[in-house]
Amino acid sequence: MHAPPSTTPVLIVGGGPIGLTLSILLSRYGVDHLLVEARPGTSRHPKARGIAARSMEILRRCGLEDAVRDAGLPAAQVFFYRGRNLVDPDFVRTGVAHDASCGDEHTPAPGVICSQDALEPVLLRRAREWAPDRIRFGMRLLSFTGAEAEAGDERTSETGAGAGLDVLLEDRDTGRRHTVRAAWLVGCDGAAGTVRPRAGIAMDGPTGLAHYLSIRFEAPLGAVVADRASAAYFLAPPALGGFMAVDNDRNWIYQYPFDPEHPRASEDLDDPHRLAALVRTAAGIPDLDVTVRDTLSWRMDARLAAGYRSGRVLLAGDAAHVVPPTGGHGMNTGIGDADNLAWKLAAVVAGRADPALLDSYDAERRPVARRVIDVSDGNARSRTGYRIDDELLLTAAYRSTAVAPDPDLPAPPPLDVTGYHPSGAPGHRAPHVRLVGPPEVASTLDLVGPDFTLITAADTPAWHRQADAAAAVGIPVTVHPLDGVRLREEHPGAFRRLYGLPASGAALVRPDGHIAWRAAAPPANPELREVLRRVLIGGG
Asked: Looking at the DSSP assignment, which residues form a beta bridge with residue 281?
């Protein structure tokens, strides 16, 4: 492996789903960057599995929806099984919970079950395709230094790689060390990573809520579950834990809860015969042919970083929040972090935005993570079970300097746990409206990015003049009128209804798909330009 570049605008530490998604998004915005990952390759263990609708929308924007679906379980198997074992005749099987209020379709990209060992190669291929020679596995961060690494409240207007942090990296194969000057450093290196503690950011919240051993094994269970194929198999007491389907045939995960303080815990968990016996007992098949492939022990925590930014250091994913897996929201929350952060970094690196814009990343994403942790912790404590809510993260709504709020509306909650209710108010994710037009455009969400997007109900010259005024000061805006010429709504009037706009209105959508501003009619003055300036200043 040859030496990494000596300077980079953005250095991503961590090549799991969050770091790879951030790399792909930065490439989409034309931002040069470097990603380093200490592991030699992608995950061998399934780990996280559920990719929720909001994450699929983000991956769809990156051209990866079909590839991820192909790598995941068939949609016909996305059910959740509850029974005393895998052969219980009195089992119950339920589907993913959706909010079907008003009979509306809420997303063009429903969630999928795609385990992390299958997802990461898909993301890695795209990251390397879009950023050749900028994705370095087998390279770890040793340290970073710089005034702003130590003084988290210091700000600067410099955005290039000439200012920033000196980051010491090591090639794990050769032992060679390299120093890279990075304008911005993003820690996507997980809960046990090095970036957050080296940046002096505390992590608060309970640890050790439960301990599990994840046993990856092979067994001929395809015929056993043929009439009850599901994504997850929750076992009722007195059974322990549950099964996660990798392919619903020969490849499986058994999640076994254990007490680390038990005197025989380490002995039991290291004995392959004992592990196979645990699988047979949980499956309810005493003579099942089991081959244990590997194990991974993990601890359930519920923790949140005290902040997502310290100077030029930012956090995303498990480095910023550790979410109990009960509900499947942890990785999805991290993918949302990457989506929120990428366009802001791109604007700062390009010089279109003040670095203070990055403070809105913490203001928008940290409250969402706090609520996700609370929901997931509640699921873990529930004695009656919990639902898998594919649409929970569609309800994320932001209140920050990167949003121009409607003055007459109250601040939205970070998440709406009662279900997804489409809203065109600033801060909310832009509602999905099915469109008829070019083959690659089937939804209003397909119009989003990489620049700001102005969606209008009619092709009004005044709205084009508003966009031209913004472009004249270096802030590109793409206008998409739903006028029935190039684009039309499959159900006429849906855009105006869901976005709360009259026929003369428009919604300004950020590159991450959240609404920054809306107006009932084109203003006489260049208000769009001024709104964008305020958004990109970030309150500085």
From this structure: none
Q: Which of 65, 66, 58 is nearest to 335 (CA)?
A: 58
- pLDDT above 50 (res 154): no
Measured in degrees and rounded to the nearest 5, phi and psi for residue 223 equal: -70, -30
CA-wise closest residue to 313 among 446, 513, 501, 141? 141
Cβ atoms 160, 9 nearer than 8 A? yes
Among candidates 492, 488, 486, 468, which has minimal Cα distance to 478?
A: 468
The one-letter amino acid code at 6 reads S
DSSP 287-347: T---EEEEEEEEEE--EEES-SEETTEEE-GGGTEE--STTS-HHHHHHHHHHHHHHHHHH
d(CA 469, CA 160): 26
Q: Which helix (H) or strand (E) holds 456?
A: strand 452-456
Q: Which amino acid is at 57?
A: E
At 28, the amino acid letter reads R
Per residue, what are the HEC states of 56-101? HHHHHHCCCHHHHHHHCCCHHHCEEEEECCCCCCCCEEEECECCCH
| pLDDT reading at 148 higher than 60 | no
CB of 114 closer than 8 Å to CB of 67: no
Phi, psi of 353 (to 5 degrees): -135, 150
HSE on the CB side for 380, CA within 13 Å?
A: 21
pLDDT digits (tens, 9 = 90+) for 388-419: 899 999 999 999 999 999 888 888 899 999 99
As a whole number, mean pLDDT of residues 180-195 equals 97
Residues 277 and 175: beta-carbon distance below 8 Å: no
The first and second tokens of residue 136, run together, are 């370095």
